[in-house]
Amino acid sequence: MNKAQFVELVQKSGSYKTKVEAETAIKAFTEAVTAALVAKEEVSLVGFGSFTSTLQKGKSGKVPGTSKTYSTKDKMVPKFKPGKSLKDSVEAGK
């Protein structure tokens, strides 16, 4: 599903009158979650899931087939853990 299709789905699900209103709601949600994660706060939506930012440790390795090595630095990455209701709904929709 691309963004335009998702906006239409949100418009129908949320009873928005226009696609612009639905897109504004989506944009507000994503910006709010992004701001919270940048501030290292957790966003928990009961039944849906939790958004968190966690530290991903750097690693080093070898490029296959060569003698070259590489290493990555520690970085913060976003994580999503689905809630029970979301898991159950997805499983029921097999």
From TrEMBL:
Annotated PANTHER family: DNA-BINDING PROTEIN HU, DNA-BINDING PROTEIN HU-BETA
Keyword DNA-binding annotated: yes
GO terms of molecular function: DNA binding; structural constituent of chromatin
Protein name as annotated: Histone family protein DNA-binding protein
Gene Ontology cellular-component terms listed: cytosol
Family, as annotated: Belongs to the bacterial histone-like protein family.
One GO biological process term: chromosome condensation
Residue numbers spanned by region Disordered: 56-94
Domain of life: Bacteria
InterPro entries reported for this sequence: Hist_DNA-bd (IPR000119), IHF-like_DNA-bd_dom_sf (IPR010992)
Annotated Basic and acidic residues bias: 85-94
SMART domains reported in the protein's UniProt record: BHL (SM00411)
Keywords: DNA condensation, DNA-binding
Organism name: Sulfuricurvum kujiense (strain ATCC BAA-921 / DSM 16994 / JCM 11577 / YK-1)
